[in-house]
TrEMBL record:
UniProt keyword list: ATP-binding, Cytoplasm, Magnesium, Metal-binding, Nucleotide-binding, tRNA processing
Name of the protein in its database record: tRNA threonylcarbamoyladenosine biosynthesis protein TsaE
GO molecular function annotation: ATP binding; metal ion binding
Predominant subcellular localization, coarse grouping: cytoplasm
Transmembrane segments: none
Record organism: Acetobacterium bakii
Top-level taxon in the UniProt lineage: Bacteria
GO biological process: tRNA threonylcarbamoyladenosine modification
Keyword Plastid: no
One GO term describing the cellular component: cytoplasm
UniProt similarity note: Belongs to the TsaE family.
InterPro entries (UniProt xref): P-loop_NTPase, T6A_TsaE
Localization terms from the record: Cytoplasm
Length: 153
């Protein structure tokens, strides 16, 4: 698996990086967003969606489980934190979203890891306690087109 790490010094830089990445990955894909609470998964999602050229207000889908952006929807933004198991994921109609030709942003994606979702980009956001505003953003993929784009970042 190819991976690359990017460091940002603020939430504004995280947003700007995600916006730039979204502009380059302007095709349907699945983005797994890993990171503990407060690492910036929603900030990253906001920048990514804006980079796709969408003007929708991006909010955390913590209670709604999924938000749709674009008309027709081009991005489905999931927060799977509150789901207990794969059955709940199935019952909410997750598989229906897979066939829409849209990008899926998955926060707390553990329940979806068994799905063979491609093209796939795994993103892990982390921070050091000594520099709490900085983020390390680890991007990993096996997809050739995404690898090519990541090598130019």
């Amino acid at each position: 698996m190819f991976s690359v790490a990017v460091k940002t010094k603020s939430s504004q830089e995280t947003f700007a990086f995600a916006k730039r990445l979204g502009g380059k990955l302007n095709f349907p894909l699945v983005v797994f967003l890993h990171g503990s609470m407060g690492m910036g998964k929603t900030v990253f999602s906001k920048g990514f969606v804006e980079g796709l050229g969408l003007e929708d207000e991006v909010t955390s889908p913590t209670y709604t489980i999924v938000n749709e952006y674009g008309n027709p929807p081009r991005v489905f933004h999931f927060d799977l934190y509150r789901l207990r198991d794969e059955n709940e994921l199935y019952e909410m109609g997750f598989e229906d979203y897979l066939n829409q030709g849209a990008t899926l942003l998955l926060e707390w994606p553990a329940l979806a890891l068994d799905y063979l979702l491609e093209p796939r980009l795994e993103i892990t956001l982390s921070a050091d306690m000594n520099t709490p505003d900085e983020r390390e953003i680890m991007l990993a993929t096996n997809h050739p087109e995404i690898m090519h784009i990541l090598k130019k970042i």
